[in-house]
Amino acid sequence: MKKILVTGGLGFIGSHTVVELQNEGFEVVVIDNLSNSTESVIDGIVTITGKRPLFEKMDLRDKDKVQAFFAKHSDISGVIHFAASKAVGESVENPLLYYENNLGVLVYMLQELVKKGNSNFIFSSSCTVYGQADEMPITEDAPVKAAESPYGNTKQVGEEIIRDTCNVNPHLAAIALRYFNPIGAHPSVAIGELPIGVPQNLLPYITQTGIGLREQLSVFGDDYPTPDGTCIRDYIHVVDVAKAHVAALQRLIKGTNESNYEVFNLGTGTGSSVLEVIQSFERVTGEKLNYRISPRRAGDVIQAYADTSKANKVLGWKAESTLDDAMKSAWDWERKIRKPEENTTA
Ligand code: UFG
Fold first, then answer.
1. What is the largest CA-CA distance in the chain?
2. Residue 1, pLDDT score
3. SS3 letters across 66-134
4. What is the share, in percent, of the chain residues with pLDDT greater than 70?
5. Is pLDDT above 50 for 346?
6. pTM attached to this predicted model
7. Which of 149, 154, 213, 274 most suits a substitution to test ligand 1, by most atoms within 8 Å of the C-beta?
């Protein structure tokens, strides 16, 4: 059984990926510092898969501990590296924290993998690297645009660090996955998204408004050059995102990759406007959402949706869930965590 290290494995995308890895028969070791997650996520993983991943609470900024970990687990076949900070606004306030967490740690991980020889590495990148792309849908060949935030910059520079390292280390194979907008929760509602404080992202803000935790959703701008004036994104079910990680890892393990550094978009290929997402919520839940149109939010691009043909063809992977499927799971999850006594979903 192949052993895989998942850093940040108790976070939103990480925990869903641990589930899919265990479902595919991998042995998983999770490292997480619990800065944006809780240890109880492991119980959710066990509920779904019947298996408890090994867990080490560790801050990967501690280089000695990272070295000691790899010395102890010399049989690791691959690393999926989610551990990173992801709040755009916070990155503007505290850039050095982002450069240390997202790039310092990446360097430590790569140093260990280079030392180890044959190794496989999957990196969480983002469609933020494209900025406002000139053409839709966005292919992997679209130019990378100047980053709008230190967070975005860590994804661009992170990709460059990996590419340069792969260039001179033929035994290291890496894939960067550029996520569009992951949403939803596992259909079992045993795991899901746990945003701390006021959510910055659209989906948790919608479900928290629906459940009565927030009074009203602000729709940031309705005067964009889009059919209904609101911004367009490619919302993808987190379980589909998780499955893509397994497909990418299997490509590296089998050695069917064409070069030792590859990049793939992870999206559905369909763009949805903010108002269409609200309509999906209302359709799925049968509830009206309290929202109002507000001024634009600084830094938002007008539209971003993926050309997914490369991942479809090369990884043999395709997003299967619709926006409504993802919305339903997000809503079931919100109801479960806020009103567990009323949870009737099974
Ligand atoms: N939006 C609202 N109201 C809200 C929150 C969001 O109208 O309360 C709108 C935004 O203006 C945007 C859309 O909903 O048009 C999606 O916003 P999100 O914050 O959910 O997602 P973004 O596309 O802005 O951000 C995502 C990731 C970031 C990443 C960014 C760019 O969350 O990590 O894509 O790639 F940096």
1. 56
2. 86
3. HHHHHHHCCCEEEEEECCCCCCHHHHHHCHHHHHHHHHHHHHHHHHHHHHHCCEEEEEEEEHHHHCCCC
4. 98
5. no
6. 0.97
7. 274
